Amino acid sequence: MPETFFGAQASHDGATIDASLVPPLLHEGLSHEPIEVGGAEPIQLYLLWESELALQTGTSTQAALVFAKHTVPYRGTRRYGYARFGAGRVSRW
User: Fold this and answer.
1) 3-state DSSP assignment of residue 65
2) Which residues contact 45 (CB under 8 A, 6 or more apart)?
3) Model's pTM, two decimal places?
4) Ranges of each domain in the chain
């Protein structure tokens, strides 16, 4: 479980990312300072969208997860017509 590994640092917004967006995310992440393990800074978790689809169709039983330091710009992909209650980013004003 990601919550066990990342602890309180894990994001809880249910973000997904397309596989094609992972290489640019990883490339940009290399220019940021390392994440302090067990620290207080948040870590953005992304569920790989193709992995989520494979889980839903039963072609896989294991999810793929990517993570990034909070200083890397958010790369989550909006999924219209797909939602999980209590998970998502919303604008509050």
Assistant:
1) strand
2) 2, 6, 10, 11, 15, 65, 66, 67
3) 0.80
4) 2-69
Number of other residues whose CB lies within 10 A of the CB of residue 52: 16
Give the model's pLDDT for residue 13: 85
* DSSP per residue, 10-63: B--S--EE-GGGHHHHHHHHTTSPPP-TTSSS-EEEEEEHHHHHHHHHTS-SS-
Alpha-carbon distance 46 to 13, whole Å? 9
Confidence of residue 64 (pLDDT cuts 50, 70, 90): very high
* Residue from 27, 18, 25, 11 nearest 78 by CA: 18
